[in-house]
């Protein structure tokens, strides 16, 4: 796991980086506080996850998310906020953020989000952000989750999906559980119907 942190709060970055080094000794962690060195680090390193400050001055986080997705679609972006608002969470998820976290989350929770995001799972700060129909949409799913949902809608089993996407059946199951929660459905049939309706 190679992590790039872009944040303008040096104390937060120092504490986060120190904690992550201890809890993820295998990870390579790079940090920056400005956009030029951010792109330089992204171009030079084999980055798999970006921890992006969603409240940087003079930078539109949504535009940056779109640009990252166009240039580096395989990189998962986690947006960190001092205060999480439902409207911001929805906005960032629509622009393909893999997760939205609060800066005061315990380090253990951040590590869990990093591990989940690396596998393509979408992570939310709290389930209450889904209490709105606008968020119960296929478009808020990650690219991998949409692939799985498409295969599910074609009638494929977990085993068939895992073979098709070259991932384990356990990973398929974890994705499906996340999809069901995101779409607020209880089973495969409801999820498939929602996919067909929105497509």
UniProtKB/TrEMBL annotation:
The modification 4-aspartylphosphate is found at residue 53. Residues 2-118 form the Response regulatory domain. PROSITE patterns: HTH_LUXR_1, HTH_LUXR_2, RESPONSE_REGULATORY. One of its GO terms (biological process) is phosphorelay signal transduction system. Keywords: DNA-binding, Phosphoprotein. Gene3D superfamilies: 3.40.50.2300, Winged helix-like DNA-binding domain superfamily/Winged helix DNA-binding domain (1.10.10.10). It holds the Pfam family GerE. One of its GO terms (molecular function) is DNA binding. This is Helix-turn-helix transcriptional regulator. The lineage of its organism: Bacteria, Pseudomonadati, Pseudomonadota, Gammaproteobacteria, Enterobacterales.
